[in-house]
Amino acid sequence: MPRIMLTDEYWLKLSRLLLETGRVYNKPEHRMTLEGILYRMRVGCPWRDIPSAFGDWNTIYRRFNLWSKKGVLLQLFTALKQSPDFEWEFIDGSIVRAHQHATGASTHESESIGKSRGGNTTKIHLAVDSYGLPIDFLLTGGEVHDSKAAPELIACLPDADFVVADKGYDSELIRELVRKKNGKPVIPRKSNSKVGNADIDWCLYKYRHLVENAFARLKHYRAIATRYDKLARNYASTLALAYCMMWLPM
Q1: CATH code linked to domain 88-229
Q2: pLDDT tens profile 190-231
Q3: Residue 67 clears pLDDT 80, i.e. is over it
Q4: What's the pLDDT band for 148 if we cut at 50, 70, 90?
Q5: Where are the domains of the chain?
Q6: Cα–Cα dist 203/67, whole Å
Q7: Residue 50: φ, ψ to 5°
Q8: Which residues 6+ apart lie within 8 Å of 22 measured at CB?
Q9: What is the share, in percent, of the chain residues with pLDDT greater than 90?
Q10: CB under 8 Å to 225, separation ≥6 — which residues?
């Protein structure tokens, strides 16, 4: 039997939330289906190579695809983040390589895969709370600069006392967006800035490693560290499930 990830306590919590979405029926095989999805996410194998102990691979894939299409896993992530600490919010972006099998989706919409120096890449733009737990994210092509995606990400975030980011977010537009949401931006200016960094809280800025730690935990999952999903919504659902695993012990 392959290693599993869900204890009885975790499954009880997840199964209740799955039923509350109103989009999932109460079926006993759902636990092993979810274990199969987590196995594939952890090891990064093709769907066909999921061990038969979890059930038929095609059933697992079709259920994942259906849940992704209905937004079930994103709803699960939203339901689990019940008590974030919004005193501090940390934002950052991280590039992941897209496998050659991730390209070529037969859709007319953007699949959040772009060309950058590293080839076909996707960028995860992530926000975490004061404890380093994920609170929101979005996907773009890997060539999109952090500062370009920041306005959309910040607009989705709850109001916080401080929003902390690195020099990649050095923009007066971004600072003004944070101030409009009653927060204080802690974003260092670049070395050629005439304003300088006398107003930066460097003690608070040191805690920016919390968002880097969240990315490190995410990339323990090989299906996230390398993108194999053709559809952006399926990759986003994989990310949402990884965030759920970070919130489950809370």
Answers
A1: 3.30.420
A2: 888 888 888 899 999 999 999 999 999 999 999 999 999 999
A3: yes
A4: very high
A5: 8-70, 88-229
A6: 42
A7: -65, 130
A8: none
A9: 83
A10: 44, 96, 218, 219
Residue 30 and residue 120: Cα distance in Å, rounded?
Answer: 34
Token pair of 170, please? Answer: 């050095």
Residue with tokens 């005439």: 194
pLDDT in tens, 83-126: 889 999 999 999 999 999 998 888 887 899 998 777 999 999 99
Q: What is the DSSP-derived secondary structure letter of residue 26? A: -
| pLDDT at residue 197, as a whole number | 87
Residue 54: which of 42, 67, 37, 74 has the closest Cα? 37
* Termini Cα distance of the chain: 28
Q: Which amino acid is at 138?
A: L
Return the amino acid letter for 7.
Answer: T
Q: Under 8 Å CB-to-CB from 70, ≥6 apart: which residues?
A: 23
| Residue 33 backbone dihedrals phi, psi, to 5 degrees | -60, -45
H or E stretch at 77: helix 72-80
> Do residues 88 and 130 make contact, with C-beta atoms less than 8 angstroms apart?
yes
